[in-house]
Amino acid sequence: MKTYTASITVTLRRAILDVQGKAVEHALHSLHMPALGSVRIGKHIEVEVQAPDTDTANDLVMDACKKLLTNPVMEDFHIALVEKAAGVPA
Amino acid sequence: MKTYTASITVTLRRAILDVQGKAVEHALHSLHMPALGSVRIGKHIEVEVQAPDTDTANDLVMDACKKLLTNPVMEDFHIALVEKAAGVPA
Hints:
Two copies of one chain form a homodimer. By secondary structure, the first copy, chain A, is of the alpha+beta class. The first copy, chain A, has a domain at about 1-15 and about 45-85: Phosphoribosylformylglycinamidine synthase subunit PurS (Mth169, Chain: A, 2-Layer Sandwich), CATH 3.30.1280. In chain A, about 30% of the residues lie in helices and about 40% in strands. Chain A contains two helices and three strands. Chain A has helices spanning about 20-30, 55-70; strands at about 1-10, 35-50, 75-85. The first copy, chain A, has a three-stranded antiparallel sheet with strand order 2-1-3. The longest helix of chain A is centred in the last third of the chain and has 16 residues, at about 55-70. In chain A, about 25% of the residues are buried. The mean pLDDT of chain A is about 95. Chains A and B meet through strand 1, helix 1, strand 2 and helix 2 of A and strand 1, helix 1, strand 2 and helix 2 of B.
């Protein structure tokens, strides 16, 4: 069994108005930063996964995303998996 | 002037208890997904930046992170900059 670290990025779909992003954009402009715009705010989730291989780990995370972590109607997600280096065996 | 897309990942520092992550972890276990654990939840922010070069763009985003987007006492952040492909010139 290996340990993987999954980084999940959840973003609102492009077609959906991001009110939180708009608020931050206005705040940036109020702080005299006109060079920054089109702000979109999403979630970043890090999870540790115990799985025998990368494919199984990916399936487990995908399942969690669909069942709990994201709203598939409004959000897109992207998963990046990295295997954790094994510790020195006892 | 070039347009860059900055992806900012804001995470709570390791030493700080992530209650939202803990709640999600409990929910995952309740949904019979015991292979997933150590959940940490952060923010993912996408911003478009107008700047003459990558260094200036990075400085602008760094400044926005320090002044508005993150809480430097509790959070770490990471910036990834990608230059947007220029459109066909008129």
